[in-house]
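Lab notebook: predicted structure, single chain.

Context: the supervisor wants predicted structures on file for every construct in the current expression panel, including those that have not yet been purified. This is the next one on the list. No modifications to the sequence; it matches the entry in the shared construct table.
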Amino acid sequence: MTTLPIALIQTRTPASAAAAFAHVEPLIREAAAGGARLILTPEGTNFLIQDRARRAAALETQDRDEAVGKLRALARELGVWLLIGSAIVKSGHAGDDRAANRSLLIDDRGEVVAAYDKLHVFDVDLPTGERWRESASVRPGEDAVVADTPWGRLGLTICYDIRFPQLYRALARAGAVMIAVPAAFTVPTGEAHWETLLRARAIETGSYVLAPAQAGAHEDGRRTWGRSTVVAPWGEVIARLDHDEPGVLFATLDLDAVTRARRAVPQLSHDREFGAPS
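Prediction complete. Output recorded below exactly as produced.
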């Protein structure tokens, strides 16, 4: 049996990179001390700021962001693989001052081995009156990403991506045995949909779904759902934090379960072409 000890970090990220690193560092150290070899943090690990002017002033390139640099050094020091669920950084696109919402996979030498920019930005008007226009400040990505790790391929997604099953199917067909869903889910959408969507994506792809979350009442005024979760390829929840406080969620993945699930229901090989509905 091939196993992988992992940990999901649940955070309540502050509004500056320095404070964000100070917040997440002890949680990552706890995860490494507990034996995790792959550690995943949520969306917005380097800071969360809603005010557009303050956010613009805080933006740095990926290579200059204080939290990203210190997290790379921490992965190297601890000898672990670390997924920065996302960092809000300058996109690097000329003529577009919007940020990138970017996942960064760091190996145990502190090197960035994969990067993914969030494909689907969160532009919604919720029944509660909350209104979100992520596209105003975040440039959507263009490419899906699957990264090689010592334990198998890891598909990268972020938060709102969870509502687009075609992305997850593409990642699984590209060899992903694990799919990360770092998130900062709103409370109303999290309460209604979070676990259902995570379990559905795991079942549809026969993959482990790893979902570290932001949690609670944040410095910038938002509230997030928490409930970081690990779902196995057959759809069962194998680990969950039942709260919205910062913390560490440990789990051990039996990676042979991916093969068993995909053999039992070989749906990834059963696609058929069909005509458009009329």
